[in-house]
Amino acid sequence: MARNLDPILDEYSETCTLARMRLALVFVAFLGLFIDVPGQSRLEQCLPLAIGAYVAVSISLFVLCERGPHVLIGLRWHWLDLPLYAALVACSGGAHSVYYLFFYFAILSASFHWGWREGVRVTLGAVLLFLGVGLVFVQRAQDASALLGRAALLVLLGLMIAHWGESKLELRRRLALQRRVSNIANPRFGAGQTVQGLLEAVRDYYGASLCLLVLRGEDDSPVSVRLAQQGIALRDSGAIDPDLAASLLPDMPAHLLAFKSLRHPEHWRGAAHDLEQGQWRSLARETGVAIGAVLGAGSFISAPVRLGAAGGRIYVAVRTPRLGRKDALFLHQVTAQALPLIENIEVLDHLATDAASAERQKIAMDLHDSAVQPYIGLRYGLSALRCKADPANPLNEDLDRLIAMSTQVIGDLRSFAQGVRSCAKSEEAQHPLAAALRQQVRLIREFHGVDIQVELEEKDVPCSDRLAAEVLQIVREALSNIVRHTMARHALVQVRCDHGLLRIQVDNEGAANECDFTPKSITARAAALGGRAYVQRAQAGTAVHVEIPV
Fold it and tell me: Does the pTM of the predicted model rise above 0.85?
């Protein structure tokens, strides 16, 4: 899947803004020549040279920024600003220099672009450079007082700016998660796929080792578990013992949980938030020890969830003690937004399933009346014609072949109608796409003599029933094109899922001079699913590629 360009464009926009602000500081630096006239010392006489170096660097960064988004992205130019500002301060009087204020620009650009840690590093670097340069000009007690006062102010305001910058980045990350969760909710892929996508999105946001959803229905029904762990989706309760999973459902249905381990695995500190009263209270460490042992975590947060008739909890666990109360509150906000969407998808899924069942019954009856009965009449007619024919008639062999072919077609049509009515066999119910593909390949091999290989990892292709049916139709159309429009005797079908895309590739051998074509039906089906289709031609043959977002 193509890389999401929104973060790149946002970062490029900020980089361009910083480049333009440097040009504004250049103007301020020139004004400083008139406000604070350089003295007679050799160092102060170098002030125009220091300003000229800053002007050259600022203009160069501005020109590079205007050339495109990939030139300056990811580079931390504030570390280049610090020595330039220190040179300006050194050449303009040290602690009393008007260019001391430029250090705040470096702190601002680092904090609001990279967050708390980078902001603190730049603040400390700016303070050390300012003190080092200012000590050269300390001659009186007033100079030392001004130097220390400005250094203390630089530390205080720098830490505040770093905190605000981290808050801004955190809000941006939260908005990105909310947008991702909203995009995950797609009725076409079913409720199960949406729940799994929600878990993976939450795990990625927190940088967690796992995100776990534990649900239990009414009347003491078995516990179901969904797990997203280190980029691998484990979709069933086989990943965790059911008894252990049941222990993750404490009798606190309306409370948020936040636990962390301090210094030692047995030293847990935890709190619960009553959603009805809006208050936090401390919890015994035994609860944190028991749940932390199951999750293998250094800290975890949990929120209650309700999905249809089933209730349970969602857990986010990390190996370090860094999750806290604010993380638990935001987890509750995310699940409160996403779960109603999932419930709506379940309702739509049931409605679509019922409608499809009724339509299958109708199609099965139509097949019997419109297709099977005429073929039965044709076979009776051929059998009667064969009985009338003389035993020495040279057409007897052809008549027998036609009778056998009509008998086989009638059997296939009856099997197909029965499969439509009963929604197919148990193997197909477990993974309809894989079973149907194998059946289609077998028929093409028998009737047309084309050898087709299928590469499909069932566990790596998350497909709902309706999406699997659409994929099967796309593959059928591609194979039909091979049979009808090429002389190929070998073909390859690949179905895989990576980077959020379901990729279908159908290759066939063929001559390089075969005419170009555009599979209109495949392209239309892919577009209806929100994807795309294209054809690649090579010396060895042709490949039809279909990409569908999942």
Answer: no
